[in-house]
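Exercise 7.
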Amino acid sequence: MSASGNRSTGPISKRPLGARSRKSYTMLGLIVTIVIVGLVAGALARLLVPGKQHLSIAMTIVLGVIGSFVGGFLGYLIFHKDATDGFLQPSGIIGSVIGAVIVLLICSISPRRLPHDGEGILRRSIRLTARGG
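Solution. The predicted structure, written as tokens, is:
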């Protein structure tokens, strides 16, 4: 308590009352948008690449998000433009799909394959370590 008998709550914030909640809603909206664009880009990449891919929905989202980064990087290298006009654009979604196709093709031709029989990666690595291999 302060000398006047009032409780001290620390320094008074100069921010408006709802500024923190608006920032958290903006962040939540960004995360939801990234997940949805990742799901769409990953699913379209899986449809475009021939053959069967053993990927769960979560891995399809991860594929699409990584493809978005690859497609954005390639778009920047080719066109020398960035996201100043906004993040959700048709060209950005097309670039995400192209990047996801590239990532999926690289993963499909790589010699080391992840387990697709439902066995977790951590459990498999523990089992291999216990065997000494």
